[in-house]
Amino acid sequence: MIKNIVFIGAGNLATHLALALKQASYNILQIYSRTRLSADILAKQVDADSCSDYAEVRRDADLYVFALSDKALPSALEALKLKNKRLVHTAGSLPMSVFEGYSSCYGVFYPLQTFSKAREVDFSKIPLCIEAISIDLESELLLMGNKISNSVQLLSSNQRKQLHLAAVFTCNFTNHMYHIGQELLQEEGMDFDLLKPLILETAEKVQEMPAQAAQTGPAVRFDEDVIKTHEESLNMHPDFQKLYRFVSESIYHLHSKKK
């Protein structure tokens, strides 16, 4: 039975997940971070010990949650040598097999959300994607997941990888577009608040209809006059200009297939 948990990592995701598990009556034993201050801050929030040295990581936990970057995970596993311990990572892009050779009991506990430490989230609305090497661990992770989320799903490593890819398009790339819009407005002394109602309406529409059906704008019909004017306005931003053309053509080709 999982009750006592050690977190390896104290970043945005680790912070929100540790707080959610603490609220669900799990005991967070310890927080590790290579930055001692980060470990101390999160440990204080969840009444846990803290450390910044792998040699100080406790060995008596029921579960070790690795909330690290994809690049940092292998070296952490090599340094910790947590043989026969229950291990999970929280990444969307890494296969469960990354744990092979380091433990015989491992899985994935992936919350599909974008996290920032300073912004509160309702964890009950966050989809949790679970995978495990055994039925026993799967059952325990499902139990833990259902205590903090109303949306818990079993996904394979391939499914989760595809989900993470889709999330990059719908979240990370979209946020980059927000940044470009903000920069273009600032150049003419305008406030990003002007775009916020449009952003909200666009997000609301895809809650009710397919994204393709919600698409509007000059690229759908490939209005060359409008597109040319926009591209000329981007002469001082050649990277934005290339992106504008590429995305416009992608939208047009997708919608022309419907005709």
Automatic annotation (TrEMBL):
A Pfam short name = DUF2520
Locate the coiled-coil region(s) and give their ranges: none
In this protein, which residues make up the domain named Pyrroline-5-carboxylate reductase catalytic N-terminal? 5-88
InterPro entries assigned: 6-PGluconate_DH-like_C_sf, DUF2520, NAD(P)-bd_dom_sf, P5C_Rdtase_cat_N, TM1727-like_C_sf
UniProt superkingdom: Bacteria
In this chain the DUF2520 domain maps to 126-250
Q: What is this protein called?
A: DUF2520 domain-containing protein
| Protein species of origin | Ancylomarina euxinus
